[in-house]
Records
---
Amino acid sequence: MTNGVDIRTKNLKKPVDVAEYLFTRLYQIGIRSVHGLPGDFNLVALDYLPKAGLKWVGNCNELNAAYAADGYARVNGIGAIITTFGVGELSAVNGIAGAYSEHVPIVHIVGCPSTISQRSGLLLHHTLGNGDFNAFANMSATISCAVAKLNDPTEIAAQIDHALRECYLRSRPVYIMLPTDMVEKKIEGERLETEIDLREPSNDPDREDYVVDVVLKYLHAAQKPVVLVDACAIRHRVLDEVHDLIEKTNLPVFVTPMGKGAINETHPNFGGVYSGSASSPAIKEMVEGSDLVISIGSMKSDFNTAGFSYRMSQLTSIDLHSDHCIVRYSEYPGVRMKGVLRKVIDRVDMSRVKALPAPKIERPHIKSDPQAVITQEWFWANIDQFLREDDIVVTETGTANFGVWETRFPANVTHLNQTLWGSIGWAVGACQGAALAAQDERGLDKARRTILFEGDGSLQLTVQEISTMIRHKLNVILFVICNDGYTIERYIHGMNEAYNDIAEWRYKDLPAVFGGTEDTAKSYVVKTRGELEELLGDKDFSDRKGLRFVELYMPREDAPISLKVTAEASAKRNAMTE
């Protein structure tokens, strides 16, 4: 400081506070609502949210907030969460790890003690008591694609821009550590006049052309080619290219469980869900009998492949990913699928492409006895009649994730699932975030419906976010599948063991407990097929706004066939000793 002038900031052309800069950048990259909880190390920063045009959500706990930021990001393209140092951020870690696992971009901002306190090693609350203020950042580093510690005002703007760009382009969480004494520090605001460049980096032209030529060589030679679309095609934003490829080549296209919702399921080329041995016979025959499988954005996890039961040779496979491509046994690092797909579309010789029709799956007719209990098979084969174009469907880890394979979506349905990370309870928070993203996009009155299929056991982990749905007037239909416990766990081990049981709740009373009124929430109880058909045909139920909460009963030991197959494979793998 010289004569009352801070020489560190006097040359700034448009000085802005660090928090204002950070939150303005969040707004510029498309975020409109920020999840999280207040804590004394982030309170001053939270004051800056309204000025940047951001809405504070205010969740019930940090784990739920992380799940919600995940759901928000899957619908909006990117999400954000603010927690406090130590106790807050560690509560969110499970949700952030799930986002990292499943390639979901979340900006995790942690309000932390001042740089002065850190340098002094003070024995502060929310610390481990050992003077180590980097312990939690180090923990988060392994589940973040970038870590930014905003300790030096001369570097902060560049750190923020770099972290946000990495978050979006790599589609994974980033960790931003914001000390209390940096919140109001002045940095250069002129940078805000130029938005962060979020364009996908171009491939090296020669390398890209070589890969395209190799792909086309095998595509033109194939007699029975198919396309298989997985989750990373969604996360890394290549669905336009995928649909253009299908339209031009007329190739049959399938999705994996994690990729469900990626393809317009009303398209005549759509063949269904492929998951190895758990697939329908016609789907399994066509995919595994193909002499060229073009796999886009694959994530070959155990539950995504029904226990690693894929039966495809690498010699007949082309695997396109966000940062590399594999053609047969040749790998091309650094060649991204987006550019490759676009050039394949542009250069393919349609006179040399052989396209077989997609299999037509005939559903077994199940007589709808109005007094009969609601079974998994009947429910998932019929619920598609209730779905509409543009709906957002969220399925919880368990029976819903597997049952929905048999449901044909209308056009433009967005499907959220967490098949790889599989943290039960995720879907409640994710539903709240997804519904909020839909509201942010189109407004309160025109927001898309968000429909959650949730198990009773999973609901008990994260049920508090029902209050957040009601508080923000979100357009949610929540089906609670009441089947007396953890069904997926029962099929893996311990069918009748007490550890797979749960307490019996009065579920239909929950909306009222969490502040719902006649105008903002309504509860329903359904126990027979006739009752469900009547409810699904009720125009008020379908069209009313706010929360519709359905207590839906199914038999305790009933499960989709695909879940049984996958659970059996999981149990065998768990029992391996060498």
---
Amino acid sequence: MPRENRKRGKKHKKPAAEPDVAQEQVSFEQPEAAEAGPSWIIQKPEDTAEMDPEAPFGYLDADVKAYFRTVDVQMRQWQDGSADIEEGALTRVAEEKRAFFVAALTEMNEKEKQLATDPDCSLILERVVHSMDDFARRVFADRLAGSYEVLSKHRFASHVIQTLINVAGETVTRETKGNFPAESPSELLTMTELLLDISDELIPSLSILLNDAFASHIVRAILSLLAGLPSTMPSNTHSKKSKQWKDRQGEMRNLFETDNKIEQPVVPPSFGEKAVTAIRMCRKSLSANEVRACAASKVACPSLDVLIVVEAITGLSNEPGSLMDSVTTGIVADILSGKSLPAEPSSYIATLLKDTTSSHLLETVLTYAPQPVFDALWATHLCPNGAAGKLAVHPVSNYVLARAVPRANEAQLESLGRSWWSKAVKAGRMGVVKAVVDRAAELKQGAEGLWASVKGAFGVGEDHKSEEAINCVLCLKTLEDFRATEIHEPNVQGALLLQSLLRLPDPHNAELIEDILGLPLPSLKSLAHHPVSSRILDVLLDAESVPKKAKTRFVMAWLGHYHELVDDRIGSRVGERCWKWCDTYTKEKIARSVMDQEQALAASFYGKYFARGLNLYLLRKKPYEWRDFVARNVEAAKPIRSRRRW
């Protein structure tokens, strides 16, 4: 049909097919197949209402969240000092703080778990926990009882739990010393008892929490507190990324107390027993292969680090099947059983040496390992057949070797050799070299020719000037590179190496001292005016290994030039150290040498403080009284530094 003759009519839908009622009835009436087993067993109905992992205890009302935001703003103003406080109103403001804080705690009642799991309010709750007194902390910890495992695995609540455990160390310390709140209900557990209950709740699932991204730092915090470890341990601190985020949230401290920070908690003996229980439970639940897998995990490795420290402190490391035995691939068990150690080094430990995450764990093992285990690791992995050069210049393993050197004896120190020092200079990794120098100074053995070896590593011979040798080491450049560049900036590693060389016993540091004292005065002044290189001169004056004669030569070298030395922010500090070290006779020489420059010192921003301590007016008018004044009042003769602006 042509298109123009077509007519569009109303479309009619086809009638839906009638359902087969008989078939439906058959399918409905068909009984379910009986499961195997006794007929009296009734299957548990499936729980259709699953728990929300983001809010396992429910969500907060919008009004409550808005209230706690105002609490956060007000507490930040008080903590940052941005709130305006009129003079004479300190008492009133303190009462307002107390009333405001009590109101916030009242509003928080029965909402602790929801606040802890809320993305916005969890940080506010951390700020509130820092300002709680001992009684409030106990109430808060008691309200969370039974939910610590769930909260530890939560993204936001885990930080609240970690903060609570950290501040609980202060409360436990006071309770251990017998300081309890005046009014405390008898039915409320002490913080010591609450932490033991928290440990009982977390220890059975320790192997699971160890590998959880959010709960692993809870394991570190609770184990450190149980063992009485300081809260500033590297493994117990926040990661760099987490710390940067925390810094952006403002300072968190107690609103009502200023100096209540306790670095080393004092814990009762029951905590040590609970730490031993945790170690044994971890050994039981983890096989040796699982422990080694944790060492390679970025999540579990820091917690395993703390476990090994606690194991060593409690005296459980030197046992077959210990965590340290698992990490060292059975070296502990072989030594205890008298077996000969394998000739070939373990490939697993070789991997730990060069892994950015696991190398920290190996540093802890080398620090706390029993002496026979340390000797075995040194002979088979760190310095096999005297070949330590590759590890010493490796970007990761050099830190492990530098951590092990402080435990080395004289023979082990000698086995390291010095042929690889030039490679370390070119690579800019002087940590092991500095550790060798420090260990030689501590043992007072093996220090022969260290300064000559350091100069040889930098390509400086005996025929070169002493100024070039010191500048090459200070700038951490070989002689060839030093001469090829025009800008020479002192390096921190080079300055630390020179300080360690100055601490060597006499006469092994005599050559370096002569090189420093032989510098021209302009070069010496440039060292004194730089914040990095000036520390070398501080050690020259403070180190007991430097002879008194050398210190006197250094102080007297500045006579007639002290006004130039102290006319600088850093140089004025060096001048004050020189003045502090001198006896009365030398101090009079210094004071008389700057009399002609008194006006210049008075006009100098930094020199005027140095001149004020000399008391030149009294010296000019009554020299005998000045000498008696200096001899009797050494503290009063020090330059005034309280008004200095660094």
---
Amino acid sequence: MANSKDDSTYVPLLSETHSGIPEWLLEKVQREKASVLSVRTKVQSTKPRALAYPLGVEEAVFHKAIDELREQLGTDHVVLNDQPLKDGWYMEHPNTHDMMYVLDDEELVSSAAVYPSSTEEVQDIVRWANKHRIPIFPISIGRNLGYGGAAPRVRGSVVIDLGKRMNKILDINPDDYTCLVEPGVSFFALHDEIQKRGYDHLWIDTPDVGGGSVIGNTVDRGVGYTPYGDHWAVHSGLEVVLPTGEIIRTGMGALPGNNTWQTFPYGFGPYSDGIFSQSNYGIVTKMGMALMPNPGGFESFMYTFHKEEDLTQLIEIIRPLRISNILENVAQLRHVIQSIAVLGNPRSTYYTGDGAIPIEIIHEAASKTPLGDHTWVYYGMSYGPPHIRKYKLDIIDAEFKKVPGARRIDPATLPPDEYFWARDRIASGTPDVQELRWVQWVPNGAHIAFSPVSPIRGTDATRLIEMARRRHDEFGIDLLPAFIVGLREMHLIVEIVFDRNDSARRKAALDCLRAMIDDAAACGYGEYRTHLVLMDQIAGTYNWNDGALMKFNEKLKDALDPNGILAPGRCGIWPRRYRGHGWEMTRGSGENSQGSGVDL
């Protein structure tokens, strides 16, 4: 398929840009883009728009500071955000705002974007921000979609787009099974480079969609689907620019001339890496990562389960199998509505009425698919030589078939575009894009997630599903749940898909999420990751001992960032100069993301 820049389905390749796709995925991604555009009804604005200045910074002072930064970095590497906002799509996303906005699209916007080429230039930007008290917000590539994308929490912040010019794979060690990367290296790029070098014995672990930054996903504690799926757990060594401009290297990286920075994560003394994940304490400019050894074979498997109430028994079966690593990878248990949504057809294909889509309609649609009718579907993978796989798969089969009506689906009966094959690729370390299809469930599709953590227990799974269903019915939203099962805990991921061009549907999505967050916290369930606008509320649920943890986080923030310039408000951590000015967004704060000001 042609890939001309003049064509509406043009998609940038890795050979053209750090954020592009590998050529072997081109035709598939072009089809995905065409499908996204086919359900888009929003008309792109061409009207001039005013620059969003950060509160507390006068316009003249801001422009003088920008001129100064241009002298340091070059005019082409400092760009004002004064043009009409363009949402783009996953592979051509903006760095100006959240393309999947749940507030008005002008609410969380930057004032400018800057593009450093080195750690030293990141230091220069940080020192500049301290000099002028201008808030900065670093992004790696900006594809943290569903969680805020490239948007800053404080309107008018200057976005530091690290990935555009800092995108080198600095090392791939085929003997130690490690790599060292900069922020602009995507899972696509790392996978392709390993293949290019002929390292067939190395695998990467990839999340559902492979265009995100390896560093960005890891420091936000994202996950993939091989046995190396906990990305933060398999990182080793960071280089970090602190909010005052100093550089540190963590772990063995603090030892000059060391030869184990990527193989031993701890070094000597306090383990400091943790404070740089899901925080605003520093800017990660380099990171080491362990790579998975090729296991010598792999085999995907899929089971369907007929009844809603099978969930309780199924989770009880999964727990001991997962803890003992018979179920080896970070697997997924999805609801039937996910099976239908991921086909990529608009919701209107099946139902045009008001409120949540009736489950009978979903089951009817499922009955016409290669999987047949079902309520739950489990995607997993077994690794190793054939005799090892057979031993584990026989155990899994015997256990899963204790659930009446359980069926193992024969992959040979599935067409090449069946979602099963996307899961097969991802669980064997090959990045994909097919997960994007369910976002097309509604016009102008956007998504935002409810993601509580719970024990791997049937009673907890049932309680969380019932809690989510009650709130979805209340707000007229389709419930799209999936359980992501770790070794001793599981995440319920409920994706709310909404029309971002419809203010009523945005409000319903946000109100539903805020209600579920409070419901879950009241039952002892906390979120592991969230969107920018929900960070204050979720941070507020971690309030044991009169909020002792947040008080500790604020002490760290004030010590490391005395001028409060680095990503203020990220993960609910506000610098001293913002506190007491109403910046926190809670269930009662509506759509306003701004406070009344800052201390000067």
---
Amino acid sequence: MTDMDDFTLKLTNELRVSPLYNELKSKAKELVCRTSGDVSQLKMNIHEGLAKSGWKRSLQNEVYCRLLERVDAASQNRVHIKEPLAYIRRAQASWEKRILKSLNSMCTEMSVPLARKRPIPEQKEIRSNWNELGVDEPDLSLFRPVYGPKDFLDMLTLLKNPNLASEQLCNFWGLLKLPFPVKSLQQLRQEFCEMTPRWSQVGVDGGSHTDIFDAESVGLGQKVMAADNIALCQQYSRRGIPPSLRMQLWLQNVGLRITDSDRLRYDQLKMHVFKHDLLVDKLIYKDVKLTATNDDQYFVFEDFIHQVLLLFSRDTEVLKHFARSSATPPKSYIRGMLGVSDYAVVYPPNGIIPFHGFSMYVAPLCFVFEDPVTLYYFFREIYTRHFFRLHTISSHPQGIVSLSVLFESLLQACQPQLFYHLRQMGAQPLRIAFKWLMRAFSGYLASDQLLLLWDRVLAYNSLEPLAVLAVAIFAYRRVNLLETSSYAAVEAVMADTTTIRVIPLLQAILLTEH
């Protein structure tokens, strides 16, 4: 049996247990009941009926998504599905122990349980205040974030390839001295060639032809929506998405359809929130207050963000992404059964301990989705596709380590004088850019510009535009940065990036010879 035969068999078996299979089967039964012609034509009639009703396209989109996952896995040539490099696996395991130790220490110091069942009056109170969660302000002054971008970066700087001789480390100018293979500037230019000024871009064009282009873009986008083809949608999205079509095309881009069972599951997750209080609820609440609520763009979405993250913390479907992640979900033990594996449970139920700034993954989506159910499921989808890679240690090309190495490599190639100047004064560029990368620039750009950036992330199915944009911002501020003489001065120059226009800067890096 060939690899493709094996994959086809595996894919068929996976589809047989998917919700889509049951929906297709139900529709086929309807078609059989309505068919009164020749029995010999039954199979052909069912095929034609499924095609006319759009179910054939839904099946094709599902297969396309599975093929993309296979290509991604095959490109890694992985011996270990989760992580091929032993020293990276050890580093991730060490980091997880450190996070769990911090969480348990907080529990012990404050005499707060990891989880408890809410009393009936408290259940009624949170149910009645579900749409006003931001109004209640409990005293969380003693609670602290388990970790933040600075802590994570400090951990990454300790990474060292044991096969790399110490004298070879002097060849690395950057903060991360890892020989990870990353794309060159020329390779990135080829990959992101649709960003060339030869093609009009949503969010960048001005002048008299803007209205004409906007109308054409909306008209073409509507045709793409009608076609319901994920590959076509991704190709269209590479030049940006008009705001009026962003919700529908983002959903189509990831193949997300909200069903009645999804809405039922959403209500079940709400019931879990009402019945049980988790320690991570306090961390979520404090993070929302420290980040989104303090942001002029996102404070109005405080309740939505809080709802999404409370549901997310209890959603065990999120655990499936660990099959593709270098991380392992943390576990706790039922009281009195410490160390007994049979009484170990994943905590929190989704396996994700939020860090400082985690809520900013949700905040920008509130501009796109007004239905809380759709908002929740899209966030879960984009997190389990992309964002989980931004806070786990792995050698994956889309992981935060590779993105950091790519950033340092590109900046050295594009702006060697600037990189050397900052390095000499002890202001390594990655120390400034890392928080941008880890939060996918959420909170650091104007919301309209951030959504244009995330358009490209979804269209190219890649997080590499984040690293390219980080380089572009340094290049844009080059003159001022070269005049600095201290790390504090560099921070001051790079403090405000909300005036940045994303697409022109990306074009400047990708299309200019340096």
